[in-house]
Amino acid sequence: MTDPAITDLSKDAAARAATLLVEPGMRLGLGTGSTAAIFVRRLAQRVQDEGFALRCAATSKATTELATSLGLKVEELDDIGWLDLTIDGADELDPDLNLIKGGGAAHLREKIVATASDRMVVIADQGKVVEQLGQFHLPVEVIPFGWQATRTLVTRALDRLDLTQRPVLQRMRDGKPLLTDEGNFILDLALEAIPDAYELADELSSIAGVVEHGLFLNICQLAIIGRPDGSVVEL
Ligand code: 5RP
Questions:
Q1: Is the CB of 139 within 6 Å of ligand 1?
Q2: Fold classified for 4-129+218-232
Q3: What does the entry list as the binding residues for substrate (predicted)?
Q4: How much is the pTM?
């Protein structure tokens, strides 16, 4: 390991394996979060070593800054148009490769980038693999205008689906409401289990103030799971 910024061997194993999916000239989506950041570092190393060109679109300001600082060319998604491949992390993934994302509050851009790609590949450590989604809180990005009414509607939807009685919390940072890159708020849904992710996704999407929820259903085609010994398994 030559990069002192990379300390998690499982995440690094997945990230290294994912760099091998990248081909010269590709249009590539770059995810957000600690695993995606390791991928960006490994990718930048490979591009520097092999000297090939890529066109990258990033899923957050943080990833744009990191990638640019490492010499990768980051463009607006609309300037690239469509992507060949997106590599991103996840908060949870189930055996059908359905995901919860948004732990880093970036799931709106992440979903746009992933669905504007021919292929989305998740990189993660074994701890992210679950039988059923829902132990990780489900992030929902909402418009600030009338957000408390939106929260009421979200709570009612959860009640209708018999999902949870725990309060829907607004995500805070440093004592203030967290603002996403798009200037929105995040509600975190503590659900414990999501028996029917498709039903919940439909309910949430039908609420006016909801911009996007963190359920990624039928979007990911491959998951690369890293292990501390440097090996990986593909799901
Ligand atoms: C950000 C995300 C991340 O991909 C997710 O939170 C996983 O992050 P990490 O790799 O740090 O565990 O969805 O919105």
A1: no
A2: Rossmann fold (3.40.50)
A3: 32-35, 88-91, 101-104, 128
A4: 0.96
